[in-house]
Structures are given as structure tokens and as C-alpha cells.
Amino acid sequence: MIIREFLMRHWPLYGLGITLLIITDLLSILIPRTIGRAIDIIGGNGDVTDSLWFLATIAATMAVLRFFYRECIMGTTRRLEYFLRNQIFRQALYLPMSIYDEAGPGKLMALTVNDVTSVRVAVGLGIMLLVDAGIMGVVSFTMMFRSIDPTLTLVSVLPLPLVFIATAVLGRVVHERFRRVQEKFSVLTEFTQELFGGVKVVKAFGAEEILTARFADVNRDNMTANLALAEIQAVYIPITHVAPLTCYALALGFGGRLIIENRISVGDLAAFTGYLGLIIWPVMGLGYLINIVQRGRASWLRIRDFLTILPYENRSEVGDSSTPLILNGDIELRDLTFQYPLASVPSLRGISLRIPAGSTVGIVGRTGSGKTTLLRLLLRLYPVPDGKIFMSGEDINRLGFVRLRSAIGYVPQDAALFSATIGENITFGQPYDRQAVRDAARLAVVREDIDARAEGFASRLGEKGTRLSGGQQQRVAVARALIRRPALLLLDDVFSALDYRTQAELIDNLHEIEAGRTTLIVSQRVAAVKHAPIILVMDEGKIAEMGTHDELIDAGGLYYRLYEQQLAAGEVS
Ligand SMILES: Nc1ncnc2c1ncn2[C@@H]1O[C@H](COP(=O)(O)OP(=O)(O)OP(=O)(O)O)[C@@H](O)[C@H]1O
Ligand SMILES: [Mg+2]
Questions:
Q1: Which residue puts its alpha carbon closest to atom 14 of ligand 1?
Q2: What is the pLDDT of residues 139-150, one digit of tens each?
Q3: 101 close to ligand 1 (CB < 6 Angstrom)
Q4: Predicted confidence band of residue 313 (pLDDT cuts 50, 70, 90)
Q5: What is the 3-state secondary structure (H, E, C) of 54-75?
Q6: Domain boundaries, position 298
């Protein structure tokens, strides 16, 4: 798998880091003993210069080693973090839309941000604590037990198991409450972000006070969670500070007696307290370590599950057909029924239809009748059953995503622009030249609007394309689709925010470029579709009527009624 690839490449550096860490830990164990000996030498009025040099050498070596092992371990974990984020992001973009319907962007955000961080902490800080606990704990204990005094050792470490249990139990509660704090905080940020984003609606509906009150609730939840955390920490932190003192007190009390009885030297006791210091922290940190490792493991499993979801959209897929097929926009639907993964009823029912290459199809129908769904399926944004949709005579499930989508120009119902310049929104990462961009904008009837701006095509848009009017956003989205010169153009309600003159101009331009291109125009407006040789009228997921404008008028059905209403309103002639 991809992770294995990463480990193979970075394992040597990481392994080196751990080796250096082990050496550092072993060196630090020499310190208490050396100090103890030095104290005894001083007690005997001897010369401690050698001991001092030795200590200085150890300290210097450890400083250098520390630098390198941190570089190796932390460097690897930062690279791992970078690597995982890239993998998750890419995977998220290649999953079908239903993932977004189900989990929402929030879950993907949590995966990319929180889970990756937990994994990094586990393989970085976690592994360092683990090695510390192992080496320092075991070796120091052995030194104390074997080379100083077994009874003194056992007496002094007596509180440690209790401390361990207490910190492990409390640590769990701390962790639980900490998670709550994070949860509440993310609710707070989401709430704030969403409302600041929709502030115009808040103002227009005079909802300032209501929402301020609701915010106060969310804010209070956040505070309560933080207070609960502070409370448990107020217990936890003193315990972790009192515990070592108890150990030292026992060591001094009992060790003092041993000195008086001449069973150990003053230097031995000094060395002993040094070792005790090396043991206490890893033991107290054990609860924390277990926590870090558990959290890292849970996050890792989530990431692994996510990364191993078989990408529905195979990124290297070029299509199964042995002969490359140039899509010409010829479409056939055979009894297509489709239900969204989370829906309880189908959104499309038994649609059968043949659209010859190069034709223009108008699609009307009341809201919720399945128009957008039909376009989404032509793009395979959702899994399409086999044998239902054919393009240029080939099942679209066998065309490959790259080939299928590069043949399609799609303008979604919400323009879906991004925070970049207008020009960048139109080219969308492709290397089109300036003239192509201007031409596309002209065809989309938005060039004059753009030229009228001080910075023209270089004007930056805000998030989701703000700083343009709704109709301008729609037309920039049309330009983004037209510049690709697609064989199949899918326009989802792109006239909804346009005045009639602009609409007529855009329709004229679409005619101009229609030659050889299949165009599907979804609209509520008869004026936008009446010229189309085929008009579909959708109703409750079915094709209710189909024909030319004149035929449908004669039939006197849904289309006729729609026409009549718009005629009365003077919207169509
Ligand atoms: N992602 C989704 N998950 C579940 N159901 C959905 C989803 N998107 C749309 N639907 C449902 O599918 C049906 C058809 O929706 P669709 O968006 O295709 O309608 P539409 O004809 O484009 O309507 P409008 O004119 O309002 O854009 C609706 O009942 C809608 O509630
Ligand atoms: Mg729609």
C-alpha cells in the first residue's frame, strides 16, 4: 500500500533517530552514578576534576545527540504528516459525491486535520516517551536495585504503582473531557463561520438578537466543557507533583538510615535520588503515553480505512475500450432509474431517450423533478448502473472518467466559483492563452462586465465567487465550460439570474457554437428552450412529455401550461 511505500523510504532515518535516542538515554543513566562517586570523592577530600570532565563530556555528547535524534524523528513525522494529508486530499477528490452527502465536508476536514495530527504525535512524541520509559525505567531500576540497595529501591518506588494507576485513571477522564472541549470548540467555530458567511440573511430577517442568544448557548457549552477540564486538571496536576516528592521523602528517610548504619555512602544516596528522578517521570507519563498511542491508533485506523476505500474513480483509468473513442456527444439512455444513496425514493424513473450527436435538448420541469440529477449522472458524479447510459455507443461506465469528463462542459446550478482571479476561474488550471479566455468570456456574454472592472480578468473573487453578481457568476461559470470546447455541454439553469436581453444574447451565442456540439439546456424558462429541436418535460423523475415547441403546445399538457403562464407574464412571445 501507499503507506508501506512511505515507510520503506523513510525507515532508515527514523530508525537512526531511535538508535540515537537510545544512546542518549543510556548516557543519561551514567550521570547519577558519576555524581554519586564525585560526592564520595569530595567527602574524602579527593580531586573531582576527572568526574567534572567526564560529566561535561557526557552533557556535550547528549546535547549533540539530542539535536540529531529530534531532527531524525520529528523530521520523519512531519514528512509523514505532509504525506498523509496529500493522500487524504487526493482520495477525497476522487470519491463519489455520495461520500460528501453522507459525511459532509466536516468529517473529511477532521480526518485531514485532527487524525493526521494524532498519528504524527503517536509516532513522534509517543515513540520518544516509549523509549524513555523502557530504557530509563528498566536500566535505572536495575542500577538502583543491583548496585545500590534492593530494599531501599523497593521502598522508594512503592508509591509508583499507585501513582501510575491514579494517573492512568485520571488521565482517561482528562482525555475524555479534553475531547469534549475540542468537540464544543468545533461547534462554536462552525456556528460562527456559517453565520458570518450568511450575515445578510441574518440582518434581513432581523435575527441578530435570536442568533446572539443562540450563540451564547453554544459559547456557554464551550465554557462548561473547559471548566470541567480545568477541574479534573486541578486534581491531576497536584497528584503528579506530590507523587515524586513522596518517593524522594521515602528515599531520604530510609536511605538516611542506611547511611547512618554505614550500609551505603552519601554518594550512593545522591546517585540513588538521581536514578529515582529518571524513573519517576516515565512512569507518570505512562498513562499519557498509553493515551497518545491509543488515540494515534484509532486515528490511524480511520485514515487507513479511508485511504483503502476503493477509489470509485480510478485515477489511472483511461477507459476499457481497446480503441480510443472520440466522444461526439451522442447519448442514449435505456430505462434509467436512479436513487440517491441516502434517499428513500428514486429521483429518476425509467428514463429512455436518444440524443443524436450535435443536437440541442431543452429540459424543463418543476423543481425537484430530476433535471439536475440527470446531468449529474451523465457526468458520473454518482455511480451509474451498467447498461443504462451510453455515449457514442459505449456504456459510460466503460469510458473512463478522464475521457468522459474531458468531453463535457458542465455549468452547475450554483456557479461554484472559487477564491481566485476571474481568469483563473475560467481556465481552471489549464494552460489556455489570454485570447481563448477573452473569447470564452465573450461567448458567455460576460466579457464587457469583466472589462469594466479596474483589474479586469485579474480581479480576485472572494470565497465561492463573491464580489460578482449572481448573474455574472453564472456567466463566468459558462465561460469556464465553453473554453474547453466540449462535445457535450450541460447547462443547469444558467439563465435563472439573467435578464431577458442577456439571456437572448447568450442563447444566440450558444447557437453560434452549437455546430457539432450536443447541448443540454435545463431551464424553467420557455424562452430558453423553445428553439431546441427536442424538449423534455420532466415530472417526478419521469419524462412526462417530449417533442418540439410546437408539438408540445399542440399537446396542451404541462409544457403548454408553463408556456401560458409565461406568456401571460410577458416573458415569452
Ligand atoms: N444529493 C442528494 N441526495 C438525496 N436526494 C437528492 C439529492 N439531490 C437531489 N435529491 C432529490 O432528488 C430529487 C430530484 O432533484 P433534482 O436536483 O434533480 O431536481 P431539479 O429538477 O434539478 O430541481 P430544481 O429545478 O429545483 O433544480 C429531489 O426530490 C431531491 O430532493
Ligand atoms: Mg436542479
A1: 370
A2: 999 999 999 999
A3: yes
A4: low
A5: HHHHHHHHHHHHHHHHHHHHHH
A6: 1-149+291-313
